[in-house]
Structure formats: C-alpha cells, structure tokens
Design goal:
About 35% of the residues lie in helices and about 15% in strands. It is α/β, with parallel strands linked by helices. The chain has one domain (about 10-230): Rossmann fold (3-Layer(aba) Sandwich). The protein has a 7-stranded mixed beta sheet, with helices on both faces. Strand 1, helix 1 and strand 2 (about 40) form a beta-alpha-beta unit. The protein is globular and about 55 Å long. The structure holds zinc ion.
C-alpha cells in the first residue's frame, strides 16, 4: 500500500474519553505488556456528559493514558452528542490515520443506542477505507495508509463475540484507568447531577460484563470483540485447542 512503516500497532478509536477504557482497557494493557505500540483517538471531548468539563476530562484522559502505557492519545474534538459521518469528520479521521499509521484498529460496534457510538463505528470503517485511496485528500500531503483490520469492541448484548481476550491479569489496572475518569463515576461527595454513568450500578454492570465475557472462555475476566471480515488463520489446531468454555 505504501512504503511508510507503521507508527502504531493498534489504534483504539471511540466517541468519548472514557469509552476505550471501559470497553478494551484490559486488552490494551495486555498488548502494551507484549511490547505493542498503542494509541487512543478520542473523537470528542465529552463536553456533553452530565458531569465534568472538557478541561477536567482532558486531564483525566491524560492520566488514564499513562496508566494504560499508551504511546499517543489524541482528541479530534468533533462535538459530543453531535458526531456525524460527513466529509469534515471523515477527513479528520483519515488525516489521523495517515499520521499515526496503525496496523490494526479497535472501535465501537455499530448497533449501539448512543448515536455517537454508532456513528463512530461507521465513520472509522469509512475512513479506514478511503485513507487507502491515493487521491483522497491528496492536497493535504499525507501519504495514503490503510489499516490491515478492524475489530469492534462489544457493548451489545445481542451479538456473539468473534473472539474474547482474557484480561484477568490486567483487570485491576484497567479499573485504575477507568477511575482516572473520576468526574464521570460514582462519588458520594459530588454535588453534580446524577447520571446513569455516575450510579454505583453502572460500574457493577461494567464489571459484570467483563466477568461474563471471561466466563465464556473459562477465565475470570474478558473483553469481547467482533470482526466483520473473515479471519485468515494459519493454524486452526492452535486456535481451537486454546483453553475455552468447557460447557459448550
Ligand atoms: Zn461513549
């Protein structure tokens, strides 16, 4: 596709500054421990959230990036609750992909009740494709780049994951990264208005989801991913003899 080497192995792209941590923070920690170069691209500053301010949220995102061991974290500021797939948003994502040159993308699943999440999913898929077209946004001067693959992280309760990453060894640190976004979550001392995300129940739901995905592979905690395209597998024996659910 291009002679430029990749800068990043994985770029996780999501709408709001805590989405990646909640969804695949454990996987990013596991991959960082294996030496992969990882980045997060937040598409909005989270200014539409019930609690916190853009300044507070930016500081929290920086703190979480350090906990996750990221190489880079950037924010395109495309407008919380106003995130659309249009020419401007697509060009912004393409320029980020061409600068950061990730081999693999993680992003949000398209069937999600929050429109920003659903639009992120479509935006990333479209941008990843047109980023590989030499004449798209050529005047800006960045060489084309197309990531090799996209895995969607799963919030959905209706989709069976394509694969699950066992994050049991990284679960505690994942939660440190989540709690770095302190303005968003349950805090008995806070005087800000309550939101669904700031209830104790929300974090219990998040933990239950990780436990559920972990249980599907016979582990303690897991994170689920969905892949649209067929996977090219060299060794089905190695793939199918990994520890997995013994009750299927
Ligand atoms: Zn979100």
């Amino acid at each position: 596709m291009t002679s430029e080497p990749p800068q990043l192995d994985i770029l996780a792209i999501a709408a709001h500054p805590d989405d990646v941590e909640l969804s695949v923070g454990g996987t990013l920690l596991k991959l960082a421990a294996q030496g992969y170069k990882i980045g997060i691209l937040d598409l909005t500053c989270g200014e539409g959230g019930t609690r916190g301010t853009p300044e507070i949220r930016a500081a929290e995102a920086t703190a979480a990036a350090e906990i996750l061991g990221l190489t880079v974290r950037e924010n395109l500021d495309l407008g919380d609750s106003h995130l659309w797939v249009n020419e401007d948003s697509r060009v912004q994502v393409v320029r980020a992909l061409r600068r950061l040159r990730p081999r693999v993308l993680f992003t949000q699943y398209w069937d999600d009740p929050h429109p920003d999440h659903a639009h992120t999913s479509q935006l990333v898929r479209e941008a990843a494709h047109v980023s590989g077209l030499a004449k798209y946004d050529a005047d800006f001067g960045l060489p084309r780049w197309r990531p090799s693959g996209i895995a969607y992280f799963l919030f959905s309760r209706t989709v069976a994951p394509t694969f699950i990453v066992d994050i049991s060894s990284h679960f505690d640190r994942k939660w440190q990264a989540i709690y770095a976004h302190a303005s968003q979550f349950h805090n008995p001392q806070s005087n800000e208005p309550q939101s669904r995300v700031s209830t104790p129940q929300f974090l219990r739901e998040m933990e239950a989801r990780d436990r559920y995905f972990g249980a599907l592979i016979g582990g303690e905690y897991g994170e689920g991913f969905f892949v649209r395209e067929a996977l090219n597998v060299d060794d089905p024996v190695a793939l199918l003899t990994r520890p997995m659910n013994l009750y299927s």
